[in-house]
Specification:
mainly alpha; 18 helices; globular; transmembrane; transmembrane helix
């Protein structure tokens, strides 16, 4: 049983949203949208987020609060004689792999932050921001130390537990990120040539949509809401029974959409204003944002502040990925938390080393046609997350007693039976079928 609790509803929402609003939305969404055609991808992403994503988020919330358990034990609690606990194990593996490359990007942020103190980022030699990124990521010592530093920061917070660690960090950093993002949107939209970027981001060209686009958008929807790995099962297990689950779910989804929209309006106007390509890949945010800040008054100061806040937003996502692994391992014995958090965190760091070297020492290492970093990203986002989401949706909607689902869903909420029945139908049929259709379209 859960021995720790969120101290407030807003603390839970900000922590849950922080799990998504970090790199999943700010870093990954813009570059994936850039490589998948912009507006059409973003439209599909929003539709999937509001339908499939929201239904699945509620399913994880219901399961977590109903059982008061995290990954593995939540499934065992409902179905003690089955093999459904493998959903939780799959989620833990996916979270481990996800954070192994996600923490690499967290290390890049730290490296950029350190360099920004001397104004080296917004004023690189010859104004070549791409060359600066290549210089940083090709240095194994710089990115290696930064990568380790990111994981140690994550460990130090998670070892404090939910209330004193994860919630405390999220409550202060997330609102600050919103405020600075609003400033950046205004500045980005006032750049010469910015409108072309807005059109690319928001005007859909559905003729360019393929099965790959649908699968990538689905994976991004799950990535952006931290779904498919039982993170939200774990987080909601710390919720009190009086919390309004539908309202909390919608709050997380709407905050995620808002930040996704703002991230696109910061990145793509800058891409086109500086005549850069939107399909540059994972390094997009590190080559565009410095250029945007470089054009601002006191740009170096603003960029430094943004990197600090970006670091904390990134950490809030990392917290959830470590917590989902640690909670089942300590089995409610909080005295084991510190030791187990360090073990898990350092193992993730070790697993991330090949991804960290993929842009430098191991850049020529061909792994099934791509670098190791991109292949791990693809495996997690396009295979493991949709698979986990499919299994969670089936388990919650079919295996948990309907009476328990209804009671848990409507407790503390003013929603009626009609809302519950709509959600149950969506979870039983729409979500699994949508995932299967997207997978089949890839064959």
């Amino acid at each position: 049983m859960a021995t720790d609790r969120w101290t407030s509803r807003i603390g839970f929402i900000l922590a849950a949203a922080g799990s998504a609003i970090g790199l999943g939305t700010v870093w990954r969404l813009p570059y994936v949208a850039g490589t998948e055609g912009g507006g059409a991808f973003f439209l599909i992403f929003l539709v999937l987020l509001l339908t499939v994503g929201t239904a699945l988020l509620l399913a994880e919330f219901v399961l977590g609060r109903h059982t008061q358990e995290g990954a593995i034990r939540a499934y065992k609690h409902v179905a003690p004689k089955g093999q459904w606990q493998w959903i939780g194990i799959l989620g833990m593996v996916a979270a481990f792999l996800l954070l192994s490359f996600y923490s690499v990007v967290g290390g890049w942020i730290i490296a950029y932050l350190v360099r920004s103190f001397g104004g080296q980022v917004t004023n690189p030699p010859d104004g070549d921001y791409t060359a600066l990124f290549e210089t940083i990521t090709a240095n194994p010592w710089e990115v290696g130390i930064a990568h380790l530093a990111f994981m140690i920061m994550t460990i130090l917070v998670v070892q404090q537990g939910v209330r004193k660690g994860i919630e405390k960090a999220s409550v202060y950093m997330m609102p600050a990120l919103f405020i600075l993002f609003a400033v950046l949107v205004v500045r980005s939209l006032t750049l010469d040539g910015a409108w072309e970027g807005v059109v690319f981001f928001l005007q859909p060209d559905l003729s360019a949509v393929t099965g790959e686009t649908l699968l990538t958008a689905l994976g991004q929807a799950f990535f952006s809401l931290s779904l498919g790995v039982s993170v939200m099962v774990t987080y909601s297990s710390y919720l009190g029974k009086s919390e309004n689950l539908p309202r909390s779910a919608w709050s997380v989804v709407l905050l995620t959409i808002l930040i996704a929209f703002m991230a696109g309006l910061v990145i793509f106007p800058g891409v086109f204003a500086f005549d850069l390509q939107p399909d540059e890949g994972p390094e997009l945010i590190f080559t565009i944002l410095p250029a945007v800040f470089g054009e601002m008054a006191f740009g170096s100061l603003f960029f430094t502040l943004f990197m600090i806040l970006m670091l904390f937003a990134t950490l809030t996502s990392a917290f959830s990925l470590v917590e989902i692994i640690v909670k089942p391992l300590i089995r409610g014995k909080e005295e084991k938390r510190v030791k187990m958090t360090w073990i898990v965190g350092l193992l993730i760091f070790a697993m991330g080393i090949p991804s960290n070297l993929s842009f430098g020492v191991l850049a020529d290492w061909d792994v099934f046609g791509d670098i190791f970093f991109n292949q791990v990203d693809y495996l997690v986002s396009n295979i493991l997350l949709p698979t986990g989401a499919f299994l969670i949706s089936v388990f919650v909607s079919w295996r948990v007693r309907k009476e328990d689902l209804q009671e848990e869903m409507l407790r503390g909420s003013n929603r009626g039976i009609g809302f519950f029945n709509t959600w149950l139908f969506t979870s039983r049929y729409i979500v699994p079928i949508a995932i299967l259709v997207v997978f089949i379209s890839m064959i």
